[in-house]
Amino acid sequence: MKRFLGIDIGTSYAKIVESDLQRDTFTVTNAACVQLPQSAILSDASLDRDELSKKLKQIIRDAGIKQNNAVVSLHESLVFTRILEMPPLSDKELVQALRWEAERYIPLPLDEVNMDFTVMEKENDHKKMSVAIVASPLRLIERYVELFRNANIHIDALENESFSYLRLYKDASHSRMIVDFGDMKTGIYVFVNRRLFLRGRSVPADRRLPKRSSPR
Asked: What is the pLDDT of residue 129?
């Protein structure tokens, strides 16, 4: 049996879920939620980050959670995600081409982001393929690492919200819609025929997904 800890820090609340995996079945064993100083995760002030770490320690202690390795979700609004149409290329050619393409869509220098990609779909005529690129600012990752380190939590992986949902429903056999009402934003995710429609572009859920970003 394996135990997992998932943490989602919103603009006003932190949500934590502890679950066990046994024989391909997840069982939620613990869940907790605590109110945070509003938009503290976005603050550059060290006092706000210290307060946020204290709140995380409190929720883990009060909930009786023992696991301290966590998978953490990143705000979709803080991550750059793009689906590109590319000609068929080898892996080596694709890496080089995407660096040029990424400069057009990512509003930061590439040495300031942690970027990953995956081929999501190839057309039947083999004339083009859909590629998803996901980039997280290194400054954001460093902020998360510091925050969780101060709360005595080790980050196993970071992943943006949309691909987390895609992993969850990649084997779904019928259409679904998830509406996530947050304090300051609402996210809508639509699954049709095992595809997640992301910003008007469909992402097949039965393809290999981008690896979760490991914090540097």
From this structure: 80
Taking alpha carbons only, the member of 126, 211, 216 closest to residue 167 is: 211
| Domain membership flag for residue 168 | no
The tally of CA atoms less than 13 A away on the side-chain side of residue 63 is: 22
pLDDT of residue 201: 43
Any idea which residue has 């907790």 for tokens?
32
The contacts of residue 92 (CB under 8 Å, 6+ apart) are none
Q: What is the pTM of this model?
A: 0.74
**In the structure encoding, which two tokens stand for residue 2, read together?**
């394996």
CATH number at residue 128: 3.30.1490.300
Give Cα 28 distance to the centre of its chain: 20
Residue 199 resides in a domain: no
In a domain, 206, yes or no: no
Q: What angle do CA 40, 42, 45 make, to 5 degrees?
A: 65
Pairing of strands 195-198, 201-204: antiparallel
Query: What distance in Å separates the CA atoms of residue 16 and residue 57, rounded to the nearest whole number?
Result: 11
Average pLDDT of adjacent 10-residue blocks, the chain of 216 residues? 84 86 83 80 78 87 87 82 82 86 85 83 70 86 88 88 74 75 76 59 49 58
Q: Provide the 3-class DSSP secondary structure of residue 147.
A: helix
- The residue segments making up the domain with residue 145 are 2-75+137-163
